[in-house]
Structure formats: C-alpha cells, structure tokens
Design goal:
By secondary structure, this protein is mostly helical. Helices cover 60% and strands 4% of the residues. The chain folds into three domains: 142 residues, Transcription Elongation Factor S-II, Chain A (Up-down Bundle), CATH 1.20.930; 69 residues, no CATH class; 184 residues, no CATH class. The strands form two sheets. The protein has a three-stranded antiparallel beta sheet with strand order 3-5-4, with helices on one face. A hairpin with a 2-residue loop joins β4 and β5. α1 crosses α3 and α3 packs antiparallel against α4. One of its GO terms (biological process) is DNA replication initiation.
Length: 453
Amino acid sequence: MQVVRSHRKSSPSDVVVSTLPLYRSAPPLEVRLEDFELFALDRLRVLKGISDGLSRGRKPEEMEKLAMDLLRKANMRHPQATEEVNKDIISHFVLRLVYCRTEELRKWFLSTETALFRYRFRSESSEAQRALMSEFNLPYKAVSNAEFESVKEKLGQVARSMGQSLPTADAVYYKVPFEEVPDLVAARRVFLLKGHAYVAMSQVVSLVVTQFRSHLSKALILTNRKWTSTIRDQEKDRLAPIVEALSSSYLGPDYSQPKEFGEISLKDIDQIARTSFPLCMRHLFEKLREEHHLKHGGRMQLGLFLKGVGLKLDDALAFWKAEFAQKVGAERFDKEYAYNVRHNYGREGKRTDYTPYSCQKIISSTPGVGDHHGCPYRHFSEENLRAALARMGVSSRTMEDVLDKVRNRHYQLACTLTFEAVHGSPCDTGINHPNQYFIDSQKILQSKNGSVA
C-alpha cells in the first residue's frame, strides 16, 4: 500500500467483491495522505465503540447490533459505494501500523479487530460463511451422516442445554480438535468426544475467528519489525507523526472554547472545583493550592482545562500569578510563566487556539517524579486512589467497582463510575474528556438546583 499526495484514479478492476476482507496482505492501492488519516479515524471510532460496549458488559446480541451500526451506518460509509471495501481494507492496514508499536497497543487492536470480525462474520449468510471458511483453507470436513446419527442424542442434549431446537437430519456439524474452539468448550456449548468437538454450522464463527486472530497476531509482530527497521525512519517527516498521534486521538467534540456555561469567575472556582472537576483536574487544582507551583505538564493539563471551561485570559493570569507568586515571586512569574499562560490562549507565538487535553492524551502521558499531571486512575497507587475517591464521596462498594475497572485498564470507565457515584446520575455516553465531565456535571447540578453550582 503506497501513500501518495496525488488523487487516486479508480477503475472497474479496483472493485473488490468480498464484503468481509480477511486482510491477508496490504492492497496495491495508492492512497491520498488525507484519506490515510481520515479512514483510520473512522475505523478507530468503530473499534473504540466496540471496546467501550464490551467493557460495559453489553450482551452479545446488543454488541452485534452496535458493531454493525457503527460500521455500516455511522462511520465506514463512502460517497462512492464501490469504494467502501477499499476504505475498509485501507483503514485496517493503517491502524495495524498504528497499533503494532507496543505490546499494549497490539493487545487492544487484536482484541477489538477480532471482535469486529466476529460480529461481521455472524451477520453474513450461511453461503458467505462457508465461502469464507474455504478461504481460510480450514482442514475440516462435515461429519458424515453415519457419524451424525451415532452422536445425535448427545448433540441434542447440548442443544437443549442452550435452549436451541434439536438438530435435524440435514444439520451440518464439523469435527475439530477441541483446543481450536476454547470459547465454545469453556461455555459448554459443544459435545466433546475423544479430544474432538462437534461444532454446528451456527458455531463455525469460533473456528474462523481463531484463525483470523492467529493470523493478525503474527502480522502485528511482523509489521512492528518493519516499522522499527525501515518505515519509521523513511517516513519520519510525513507518515510517522500521523501514525504516532493516531493511537491517542480524541474523536469527540471540540472543547477549545467554553460552550454551555460561558465563563467561570475566580470567586467561584474553588466551589466549582469541588463539585464539577474530574479527579485528574481536582488533584492538580488541590496540589496547586497546596504547593503554589506545578511543573510544565501540570500547568498545561490544568491550564487548558480551565480555559475550556470558561476562565478568561485576564482571570487565568491573575489565578496563576496569585498561586505562583507565593513561591517564586510576582516578578519571576511575569518573566518565566505569564508567557505560557498567554500562549495557551493564542496570544503569543503562533497564536494557535490550543485544545484542552482529552482523556486519551492524559492517560497516555508519562508523569515523572514531582509531576502531578496524568490520569489518577492509571498513575496513582491503589492506596492513593482509594484516598482520593473517598474525598470525592465515593462509597466503598462503588470504589471496588472503580478499582476493578482500573485493574483491567478501563480507566475512562473507572472515571465514568466515579461521575455516576458523585452525581447520582447515569452517564451512558461514558467520560471521554475532562471538559465533558465538567459540562455534564454542571448540567446535572443545574437541573437539581435550578442554577449552575
């Protein structure tokens, strides 16, 4: 797959017939640089939606509908219908490049892409499923009529245990080594005999998914070797910055400017911090009040958040100066720190309107000794996190649920549970941005009190 700046010329020979690609090799297509990134972002929305749904424990039938809606209705459409398959393939290989770079990234991509493949395979017709099985060259043959009759009673027992109808004479079963369908064995959804599992046609998704996952896992390792040995250096000025940014991309609304609640005043900031700041910003705010100083990472994370929730530039300068002056003096603040505050508001340097950090960016940060930025759910010790949650009024029972999400690396879900516990209100969309947390908090408090808290 070659990435170019020129417009791609399509031809009838480019049209791919298969509706479910197996992603065996990168397509020989030229891709515009803009499409390289946009296609990847669209697919990333699908994968993150699936990841969030699975983390929330949605039922299989709910997940299948969610995945297909995300894929076909919301994100992976293309103005030219014939280009949708190409977009599918291109976006997969771009994200394979993005997520091959660390073990943690590979694990997430492998899990979510495999889940997406499972849902898509299940939505295919029986004929299409059999065709896909043949593409994998699976060495399995359907059980003969004689063998089917010899185990029919046992197969019926399994079917009844799952609430399914009894197998009929024309039912198709495959006899496979049991270790190739571990999910079916673990759920007791197959009959086992002498080391083999009898897999119904309706269950062959497990066989195909196992093969798909194995191929993708190996491919990610190979892609990582190519990335580190050649691609990263060759594309350091063009593709590398895009690839390295995509894994921490924020896909939600823009919070660079205050929205529903306009401005916040200095006299109200302490109260608002207690009621509506997410834990990451509340921690930074408290440390600033306590130590009268924050390192650069903390100043950026908190400063841009405050800008996004409506703290005007003059108030921001007054706020930071009042704190820093207690430690470094007013003159030094004006010389060394005021510039950065004005810079964040687009009044210095390139005059860029800087955007508040998203959850993904905060989670992926690496705070050092003496730093207070980052995501508490990821970077705090369990003891410190328990203490911080207790100060926010989180009950012991909810705290265990939060910590369970943290142990499984679902940091944004942990923050969502905290939000729900603090506000006594559900947050169905989940928390994806600190400024979203603030806005949703203020909406709830406004509805309860008749005014913004």
